[in-house]
Amino acid sequence: MSAIEQAVVWLNDPLNWTNPGGVLDRLTEHLTMSAAAVALGCLLAWPVGLWLGHTGRGGGLVVLVSNVTLAVPTLALLTILPLTFLGFGQPSVVVALAVFAVPPLLANAYTGIRQADPEARDAARGMGFSGWQVLRRVELPLAVPYLAAGFRTAAVQVVATAALASFVNGGGLGQIIRAGFGLDIAAGGGQILAGGLLVAGLAILVELVLAVVERLVTPRPLRRARRRAARRAASAVTGG
Amino acid sequence: MSFRLSYRADPGNPWFSWQYVRDNSDTIIAAVGEHASLTARAVLIAALVALPLAVAAHWYRSLTGPILALTGVLYTIPSLALFAFLAPYLGIGAVTVLSVVALYALLVIVRNAVAGLSQVPAEVREAAEGMGYGRWGRLLRVELPLALPGILTGLRLATVSTVALVTVGVVVGRGGLGQLIFAGFQNNFYKAQIMTGTLLCVLLALLLDLVLAGVGRLLTPWLRRRLP
């Protein structure tokens, strides 16, 4: 039997889905961890990014954060955090994943605010808006396409990276692949391939769904020009 | 030469230990060597495949969309899943790690090279055409040199992320420093081993990035001259 046939057999076994630790359990874990990590990342990165963009300082900081995070292996962070006060289990995995969600969120929030039309900003100031009002009522709405693009990049990246949580027994769909590698390659090949299909399928599905959401939240006149630029700002820090 | 830190009576399980580095220098050097070699080979292979692809995308406009879309989709696929796809066919070992890692590097390089080539000003291209350059002459003498900053940015990004990605290779038994990190995790959470592996990874990434930045400076002297 080839690996593909084995994978089909594995996926066709209902017990592999409904067993404790089966696909459905792992999928729930995967999505819960990812959602928590992205939420945590947004909570940290968006206020900082918006504020740095508003004051026009910290461009260097944003680049530095992106570059350093790119160089730190995901595996190392996933291994180190459980040994700190966070302890084993989901909290440390969520924090590790959030670290990798921060750069795209931060970079896009910063770029989004910086890209706001200076004339609109000046007009708002001339109308007597305070700095806070300018940020909330002018810059923030104009930055929404960038924020959405950053969110999409971060979320897809986190869902992809969450597969690695299995190295520290953190759960998630990666666990299926790891269990397969634990067997012999001849015996586990089908399960490895099946796990790979599930993980890749989930990542692509999340990408597609968020692409639609991104399109919906971007006002029509801003659609064409902005999206490409925003993705470029974030594309430097994707992967995992 | 050693630091005072390692002279404590009960070393416990510290994050940093010079003692560990000295006692295991052979293993550490071997891991660094494997990591660097895997990274270098992967980036080299990726660059050799990526540049022709980027040129093809540049020459034939109808190919640009599909090539960029394909790299986008491939980039979405998690690294562990890619290992899962290739391992049953390529087996456990360096070939699988190289294939996976080179594929991701390839995507980064292609994207940046296409962006770099497309940013060559149209006037420059027309001027070259007017001077009688053919397609190849224009590419080699005008477009590629002008796109060099973009291409080098891609190479640097690819190298740094490849260093980080190679660690995932532990899943097929060839992770270089990832091997060290993971072994430390399994050996009763030996913190010094994990930390040493991590720091060496980051250092290796920085070092390779610096080397490429230096090469870039040497290859693009005109960029320096233009600065005030």
How would you characterize this protein structure?
The complex is a heterodimer of chains A (240) and B (228). Chain A is elongated and about 70 Å long. Residues 232-240 of chain A have low confidence and may be disordered. In chain A, helix 1 packs across helix 10. The two termini of chain A are 32 Å apart. Helices cover 78% and strands 0% of the residues of chain A. Chain A contains 11 helices and no strands. The longest helix of chain A is centred in the N-terminal third of the chain and has 33 residues, at 23-55. With 240 residues, chain A is mainly alpha-helical. By secondary structure, chain B is mainly alpha-helical. Chain B is 79% helix and 0% strand. Chain B contains 10 helices and no strands. Chain B has helices at residues 18-23, 25-59, 61-76, 79-90, 94-118, 122-130, 135-166, 177-186, 191-219, 221-226. The longest helix of chain B has 35 residues, at 25-59. The interface between A and B is large, with 46 and 49 residues.
Structural class of chain A, by secondary structure, is mainly alpha
- CA(first)-CA(last) distance of chain A: 32 Å
Oligomer: heterodimer
Q: Please count the beta strands of chain A (DSSP E, at least 2 residues each).
A: 0
For the sheet with most strands of chain A, the description reads:
none
Put simply, the count of helices of chain A is 11
Alpha-beta classification of chain B:
mainly alpha
**Global outline of chain B:** elongated
| Sheet with most strands of chain B | none
Number of strands of chain B: 0
**Low-pLDDT windows of residues of chain A:** 232-240
